[in-house]
């Protein structure tokens, strides 16, 4: 996909109503409080003994992410970084973690977030990987402002 196609997907996610029930499809999923899309997925790394393929795949995804971040920053201002470690820890302790933060925290260390206060939502981009042999994924996620405790201005 091209940057324009990714931006079109992001724009659609930002305004699309949240589904009434949780679902998973071949490009992500969603639920009553969120949308999640896998914008780009690398190959897996089961046979990447020297790690070179993973390094190259991460560089490719990082280039795409950086391009999207630049475009969204022009549109919505600078993103802020959300550390997903506390959400992962909370989930391990059995505490409720709202989606898509629960799903993302199991694969992503941090995400770049743009508040969409006029919509009561936020949009995030991140690169993640569930395990070193599995593909790297460039995620786009949209969630309710309350999932990140954002106030009406969009900042926590």
From TrEMBL:
What is this protein called in UniProt?
Uncharacterized protein
Q: Which organism is it from?
A: Actinacidiphila bryophytorum
């Amino acid at each position: 996909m091209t940057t324009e196609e990714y931006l079109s997907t992001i724009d659609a996610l930002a305004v699309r109503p949240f589904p009434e029930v949780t679902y998973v499809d071949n490009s992500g999923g969603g639920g009553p409080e969120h949308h999640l899309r896998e914008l780009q997925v690398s190959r897996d790394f089961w046979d990447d003994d020297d790690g070179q393929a993973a390094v190259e795949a991460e560089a490719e995804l990082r280039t795409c992410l950086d391009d999207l971040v630049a475009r969204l920053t022009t549109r919505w201002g600078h993103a802020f970084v959300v550390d997903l470690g506390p959400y992962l820890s909370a989930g391990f302790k059995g505490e409720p973690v709202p989606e898509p933060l629960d799903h993302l925290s199991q694969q992503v260390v941090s995400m770049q977030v743009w508040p969409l206060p006029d919509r009561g939502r936020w949009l995030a981009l991140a690169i993640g990987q569930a395990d070193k042999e599995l593909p790297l994924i460039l995620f786009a996620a949209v969630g309710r402002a309350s999932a990140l405790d954002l106030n009406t201005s969009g900042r926590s």
